[in-house]
Amino acid sequence: MRRELLGPEELYTSEDQRTHLLDSTSRLEKTSDRLDEGYRIAQETEEIGLEIMDNLQRDRETIDRMRGRLRDTDSDLSRGGRILRRISRRIIQHKIFFVVGALILIIVIALLITAVVLIKTQTDKKKN
């Protein structure tokens, strides 16, 4: 009688434990799968982050090279500006020399004409 009484209870307890164990195993597998998926996502995220860091490093190097080229270009433009200012000053100097030379030439020609006229008038007066 005791077996009859305990028998089904043991089966019921054993069956409950088995069901509970299967449920726990199923939940554990699902949790493990989620952890694996989370780990995979974390690895992908890390890879993407590393790629982004590499891209940012390359972009930084590119920007640094461009900055250097801009400094060189700025230096070249400054030097070119100084050269153009010197050329402009020399052009002005040459114009001044040309004008002064032309004025001197005009004065010399005027003096020669005046001298020739004076000499001719004096020669004409002496003849008369």
Automatic annotation (TrEMBL):
Q: Does the keyword Acetylation apply?
A: no
Q: Where in the cell is it found?
A: Membrane
Under InterPro entries, the record lists: T_SNARE_dom
**SMART domains attached here?**
t_SNARE
Q: Which GO terms describe its cellular component?
A: cytosol; endoplasmic reticulum membrane; ER to Golgi transport vesicle membrane; Golgi apparatus; late endosome membrane; SNARE complex
Q: Its Gene Ontology biological processes? A: Golgi to vacuole transport; intra-Golgi vesicle-mediated transport; macroautophagy; protein transport; retrograde transport, endosome to Golgi; vesicle fusion with Golgi apparatus
- This one is known as Vesicle transport through interaction with t-SNAREs homolog 1A
